[in-house]
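Bug report (template v2)

What were you trying to do?
Predict the complex of my protein with nicotinamide-adenine-dinucleotide.

What happened?
Run completed; filing so the output is reviewed.

Input:
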Amino acid sequence: MSEGSGQGSLGRGNSPRCVAITGGASGIGAAYARRAAAGGAAVVLLDLNGPAAQQLAEEIGKDCLALEVDVTDEAAVERVAARVADSGLPSVDALVASAGLAQPATAIEDFSADDFDRVLDSHVRSSYVAARTFGSRMAAGGGGAMVLLASVLSFRPGPVLAYGAGKAAVVSLTQSLAVHWAAKGVRVNAVAPGWTDTPLLRKPKADGTTRDLSPVIAATPQRRLMHAEEIAEVIHFLLSPSASAITGVTLPADGGVMAAAGWVPYGGFPRA
Ligand SMILES: NC(=O)c1ccc[n+]([C@@H]2O[C@H](COP(=O)([O-])OP(=O)(O)OC[C@H]3O[C@@H](n4cnc5c(N)ncnc54)[C@H](O)[C@@H]3O)[C@@H](O)[C@H]2O)c1
């Protein structure tokens, strides 16, 4: 095998030319869409919320396509991938799988198996469908890179059990896909954000009241929420040639949450 083979187009020193972003209409996906477009990449936004995706596409302007699609629907994602291939944009060589639903903090007794499936599908099935659809094309077409969205709740799930189970599965899926496609030049990594200031986090509770974010800020050693733009920078790094040796990892971007989990406060440190 010659030096550099199996690295794919991105591993040979190129940044993505065309990025598909599931959940690209809001929050972290939208922040990365702006980042990618600012870096000169074409952007394809795949989101349930068609009008919001269209509005962002108009804001970005050149080389941005908005497609309304449920990314848990394999046949629908296959159809949009074919549309993208016919769109005149460069072929998709990067994927960010950011679609996913929040889980309300609900007692297990009040959370049906259908509710459980809906949340799990929005994270796991959606990631698998998008990765399978676009990753297979990348593997056949010279390589690429993708980033899935895990979470600190992949490792410390707390009361949102479907969300936590889904995000744990995303870590596992990242490893399986990374090994499967490594020799074909497709790198697969995940980011595990801490609590990030997006519409998902700010979503009002079922009773219409806003969520008290002070407990999650207190659980974050940096004593703040992450910003979507900070997570977008980590995604940008993982998709870039600077990360050409990295595949199969889940990188926390969490203001220290994982480092502090289980911290035994001898002597009362750290002081707030
Ligand atoms: N915000 C946080 O604190 C945080 C922390 C860790 C991980 N994450 C993860 O990051 C990702 C992005 O979260 P966010 O905070 O930007 O959320 P967000 O709600 O702002 O954006 C999510 C987008 O996904 C879309 N979406 C949901 N299900 C979909 C489906 N089946 N098909 C197509 N589009 C769909 C929504 O319409 C929305 O536009 C999610 O996977 C989330 O679990 C978020």
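What did the reviewer find?
Residues 113-140 form the longest helix (28 residues). The chain has ten helices and seven strands.
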